[in-house]
Amino acid sequence: MIKIDDREILETLDEKVAPDHAAVIVIDCQHEFIADGGFWDELGQDVSETRIVAERIAGFLERAREFGVRIVHVRAIYDRHHMSDPMFERLHRHGSRLYCQSDDPASDFYPGLEPRAGEPEVVKHRFDAFYDTELDLILRAWGVKTVILAGLVTHGCVDSTARHAYFNGYYVVFPPELTGGASPEVKRVTAETIDVMFGITPSVQEIEASWKQAPVPAASPVA
To answer: Given this model, what pLDDT does residue 1 score?
Structure first.
């Protein structure tokens, strides 16, 4: 930890991802972006890659639970009454159907990535998981200082959420292995942008190594 202008600033990865003040935000791990025949597949994107990322995320969440790290699951719902004119225009331009509809099972969480007890679900209606949701309220109630971002898609909802997290005063940790839905080049550029402008991009191995060195936080008392 360093002092700048009489502030105590978290400097190292160990400090930033400490279980007592970090939270994993899992973004849009839904059938639409992972399963064959989902929106992302219909858009011509590589869902074999998003399935690999989904498996990585599932394993990472198990490690997070072992070390007492908080987890929030974010789910996209883009029903007609939530959509703006530009959102309709985008779908029309790409020849795409409406997706992430609340009455469609394709909007459900992908198997193995469903919220567990004590892991809240936040529903968003824009790419940014902070925009007009209760995510910030939940994180501040927990005393979270750092968000560790995982999910889909790298250059869309994950990137948008990372930027807003930084603007809201959170330390941003963006492990590229845990985001998917982008080409290798787009993922590289997104990670480089995050690293220069908004946060850090450590590997999963580095994050888990930091957790192993940290004391497991005591369970929070029930109000």
So the answer is: 87
Query: Which pLDDT score, from 0 to 100, does residue 214 have?
Result: 80
Pairing, β 22-27 against β 171-173 = unpaired
For the chain, which ranges sit under pLDDT 50?
Answer: 220-223
For 2-213, CATH gives 3.40.50.850
Phi (first) and psi of residue 74, to 5 degrees = -110, 135
Inter-residue contact 171 to 16 (CB < 8 Å): yes
Q: How far apart are the first and last CA of the chain?
A: 32
pLDDT at 185: 97
The b-or-e profile of 21-35 (16+ CB within 10 A means b, else e) is bbbbbbbbbbbbbbb
CB 154 within 8 A of CB 142: no
Tokens of 128: 């940014």
The structure's pTM equals 0.94
Distance CA 56, CA 178 (A): 6
Any idea which residue has 């008392």 for tokens?
Answer: 221
Task: Supply φ then ψ for residue 180, to 5 degrees.
Answer: -150, 180
CA atoms of 104 and 61, how far apart (whole Å): 26
Helices (H), 13-84: 13-16, 31-34, 39-42, 47-66
pLDDT at 17: 98
